[in-house]
Amino acid sequence: MVRMRGGSAGDTGQGAIARAYADHRQPEPRIAELVHAALGGARTVLNVGAGAGSYEPTDRAVTAVEPSASMRARRPGHLPPAVDATAESLPFADGSFDAAMTTFSVHQWSDPGRGLAEVRRVTTGPVAVLTRDPGLVRDFWLYEYCPKVLDTEARRHPALSALAEGLGGDTAVTRVPIPLECSDSFNEAYYGRPEVLLDRSVRQACSSWSFVDEPEHDRFQEQLSRDLADGSWDARYGGLRGLPEWEGSLVLLVSTPTSAPVSTA
Question: Tell me, which fold does domain 9-256 have in CATH?
């Protein structure tokens, strides 16, 4: 996680969020496979906004960047320590890495344009960005129950066109299917398991909920609990429970420079 625009609970409650991340933000293997494949044959990889290390490949030389001390402290022992730096000011020479990645992070950068330029400056090959398409964020049943959360998500996430422009090169965007039993804990991971979102600690692992006040949390809890109990949720959305995977707003954007192939040696 990299510092957010204009301050947020990421500044005031980072310790609690870090604990929730460590407990619930476990990488989903099928999503990780897509991210790692996008890195090609890169030997050296920069992970920007690395958080506790989710989705970092263990078969490459990874340099992680993470400005939050709480998040850095949550990195498991088998991963290298993260560098205390921000996306907007990377302490590396031009072309230091074969590839770069950032997952669930770019929407929290204080200046995404500057951050993307920095990532491209230090990377010779592909840059993989796991993010959300803000135009699709509200197309999810959660919008009926807590629109402020998804309005926040849509507002914070940069447009895909802005990401492509910031990185340059050839850009490909792929919608990422979310499996029903997704092991990661972002909102759409529970498209067919709504009961899980009644757990406050699960919601806390998704930073958009930190922008919602207590009365809003209470209203969400009451309404979803009632609709699950009386069958209203299942009457409208029950078909999602049987879908093995679902395409929501999650996308993988990959930018590859046209003039510099990734090293495969």
Answer: Rossmann fold (3.40.50)
